[in-house]
Write a structure and sequence with these properties.
Blueprint lengths: L1 H42 L61 E4 L30 E4 L3 E2 L6 E3 L25 E3 L4 E19 L12 E5 L8 E5 L26 E17 L8 E3 L1 E6 L1
Antiparallel strand pairs: 1-2, 3-11, 4-6, 5-10, 6-9, 6-11, 7-8, 7-9
Bound molecules: calcium ion (2 copies).
Length: 299
């Protein structure tokens, strides 16, 4: 009997211990949890986060695009231009636009025909050649200046042309076709335009031939008030070797040149004259002489 009571007491004691340990475990867990809360609030304070209020829409936050700054171009003073290698050795003269306009003058830019070269350029050795790149003609002249040669009478050193008619030189047609040029006899020949009265001449523009780049020999341009040119003014003379010595002008100081659709502009130098005479002595392709158009600008 006593033995049963002891066993019963022992069982009760064990049950009591088990219950006691369970309670201690719960207490320990609570203590650890509270410890971590203190630790968090003590070292890194959390920002107050506003809870969204039901029914109130938050305004969308507009994020501005970053402004891209344009790259700043830095201007360099006196930029150095590297010229392409070229066989053109002469210096191109300053264009009239780059100079102040003379009082009472206007800049004239005569109309030029379209380029009309055909075939392969001829490879000729030309003495006394102007290697300046051809540029469209332009010059200063008084207001009212116009082409006085248009439709005017033309005479020549020979009465008939082998191709075309002599008055085609002043008919205003300067297209580069087979029908627009005249062909005159070989060697030194001349054509002459009568302006019908004395005029002040500022520019003489010549197209000999448009379908091939040619150099015409002994291009001599004179003006006069005398139809026979006994007393005359020479405005251009590229007979550098004086092969046209029969004219008694001596060697010319102007250069030979390749003629393009820009024609050849001769400075009239405001010379007062009624007649214009133009010489030539064949070209680098043939001994024949040709003209498409001659314009005489003046008042
Ligand atoms: Ca013509
Ligand atoms: Ca010559």
């Amino acid at each position: 009997m006593l033995k049963k009571i002891n066993v019963l007491l022992m069982m009760m004691a064990i049950a009591g211990l088990t219950l006691g340990f369970s309670g201690c475990g719960k207490d320990t867990a609570d203590t650890e949890q509270g410890g971590s809360q203190l630790e968090g609030s003590g070292t890194t304070p959390q920002p107050d986060v506003e809870e969204p209020v039901a029914g109130v829409k938050e305004e969308p936050v507009v994020v501005e695009e970053p402004v891209k700054e344009e790259p700043v171009e830095v201007e360099t003073e006196n930029p150095v231009e590297i010229e392409e290698p070229t066989n053109i050795v002469a210096v191109v003269e300053a264009k009239p636009e780059e100079k102040p306009v003379p009082a009472g003058m206007e800049l004239f830019k005569p109309e030029i025909p379209n380029p009309a070269f055909r075939g392969t350029p001829r490879n000729s050795v030309i003495e006394n050649l102007d290697k300046t790149a051809p540029v469209p003609p332009q010059f200063y002249a008084p207001k009212g200046t116009k082409n006085l040669a248009l439709g005017k009478t033309v005479s020549a050193s020979e009465e008939y042309c082998s191709t075309g008619e002599i008055d085609m030189i002043t008919d205003g047609d300067k297209m580069g076709t087979d029908e627009t040029y005249i062909e005159m006899a070989p060697e030194l020949q001349w054509v002459q335009i009568d302006l019908e009265k004395e005029c002040e001449i500022y520019g003489i523009l010549i197209w000999h031939y448009l379908m091939e780049a040619r150099v015409y020999n002994d291009v001599i341009v004179q003006v006069s008030n005398d139809a026979d040119f006994i007393d005359s003014t020479t405005l251009f003379n590229n007979d550098h070797d004086n092969t046209a010595s029969e004219l008694g002008l001596g060697a010319g100081k102007d250069k030979n040149y390749y003629e393009t659709n820009n024609g050849k502009l001769i400075d009239g130098k405001a010379t007062k004259a009624r007649y214009i005479r133009l010489y030539s002595a064949g070209n680098n392709n043939s001994s024949y002489n040709h003209y498409v158009e001659v314009e005489v600008f003046g008042i």
